[in-house]
Write a structure and sequence with these properties.
This protein is mainly beta. It has one domain. About 10% of the residues lie in helices and about 40% in strands. The chain contains 3 helices and 11 strands. The protein is globular and about 50 Å long. The chain starts with a strand and ends in a 17-residue tail after the last strand. The C terminus is likely disordered.
Length: about 140
């Protein structure tokens, strides 16, 4: 078990690239690929770089966190969908919260978190960019 900054704890043999877990994660995060409707005819994939998705937020004086948000993808057709994110890291990252690699570490390369169900509704005229402004009312 290795101890580092602010009481963080890591699995045996793991050495973070940066002392703070958030900085360690940011130094290893390469990109995220989001796949809509994986394995279906309408499967679509979008890849976003670190600069496009990671944001550092100062919650209050000196308390920093990282938020993760992708730019909006193209609209999906109405109905049921899945959204599956794959993170690309280089090398492995452990979160500093425990010593179990299966619970506290993300592997290097590309890893899938899990598929997330989604429901899309037809856009109203006010939400559609192809509808002229005067007709959106």
């Amino acid at each position: 078990m290795a101890f580092t900054l602010q009481g963080t704890v890591y699995p045996a043999g793991y050495t973070p690239a940066r002392p703070a877990p958030m900085d360690d994660f940011r130094s290893k995060f390469l990109s995220v690929r989001v796949v809509n409707d994986i394995g279906s005819r309408q499967e679509r994939s979008f890849t976003f770089t670190q600069k496009q998705v990671l944001r550092r937020i100062d919650l209050q004086a000196g308390i920093l966190c990282t938020s993760f948000a992708t730019p909006p993808p193209h609209p999906l057709s109405a109905g049921e969908h899945t959204i599956t994110p794959f993170m690309r890291l280089s090398p492995e990252h452990c979160d500093g919260l425990g010593t179990n690699p299966e619970e506290n570490c993300l592997p290097a390369a590309s890893s899938c978190t899990r598929a997330h169900p989604s429901r899309s509704s037809p856009a109203t005229p006010a939400e559609r960019p192809d509808v002229p402004v005067h007709a959106r009312r």
